Amino acid sequence: MLSGVQDRIKPLKAWLFPPRVLLELEDRWLTLSAFPSRGKVHRATVLQRVPLPAGSIVAGEPRRNEAIGDLIGDLLLEHGLNGARIVATLPHQATQWRLVQWATPGWPANAEKELEDLNPDLGLSYPLKTAYVTLLPLGRSDSRDPASSLLVTVRRAAVQAWIDIFTLAGVELERLESAQLSEWRALDPLLKRVPSGGLFVQVDLYESGSRVVLYSNGVPEYEQALPVAGRPVQADLNRELVQRVEAIVRYWREQEPGLTSVQLGLVGSYAERQDLVDLFRRSEAWSLESVDVFKLGWIVPPGTGGETPLPNGSQLLRVAGLLQEEINP
After folding, report:
1. Alpha carbons 92 and 89: distance in angstroms, whole number
2. Do 44 and 161 fall into the same domain?
3. Domain of 199, in residue numbers
4. Each residue's pLDDT tens digit, 107-155
5. Edge-to-edge strand order for the sheet containing 46-51?
6. Per the domain annotation, does 6 fall within a domain?
């Protein structure tokens, strides 16, 4: 009898307290996560990494809208997440970010006009007038210094395509966010531990590719793709990867003579591979740690494991960044 009452209550609870569903999107994978809607809960009720149909997303741009929409709708139905609030990150390649320094100490009177003047120098792959633009003011150590902002852009057509996809999935999309901003927010506890004048170096290590992001005084200032990490037997490839990171850090030191320290954070499916960790540890240019979202307690995985592998690395960082915004808006 009690189970029958609980079954009747479930739809009412879902309507009154719809679960938080956080989606992370990439070219070949989708990460589905769900969390209780009430309280500051870090334990996921669902956490699943699902392959997308081939060719669904290419270089961050959706190509098979109906297939993606059907998959999202089916996954939500399978997990009983109908009526959920959906927040998603755009694929990493869909958004571009730049650090912009204004000509004056104060916020510009006409930021849009100044951005248009800067447009050729920003190196964006599309005109600003075809993009949605977000400007995030950044702090200054001296009020006399020129003001600066983090510029985040995404093509308007790409945003509309994703809105259409979630409409096809039969769900209400609450918010889309840049993957880079989600990662930055997730890393904030580590960035706050970096001493003044220090540099935090995020190194993503995956079988499909690697990436480095430099955070100076807690602000992302540089990003670059890196060579793919080789298998353990491919020592030459792995040494080359480490040398590339060393060269980037060395160049940054030359540009910033006041740099006090370098903290390296390894992220990704290869981040705890001992041969790579050993190679990175041999450098005297930095201190080293592995950024594991589960071990740091930013997300607690569901109590029961599923058939599909749990997400890791940047995928999980982005989910953690979305969750942080949800529980600490």
Report:
1. 8
2. yes
3. 191-291
4. 777 887 888 777 667 788 888 889 998 888 887 766 677 788 899 999 9
5. 46-51, 29-35, 20-25, 85-89, 173-177
6. no
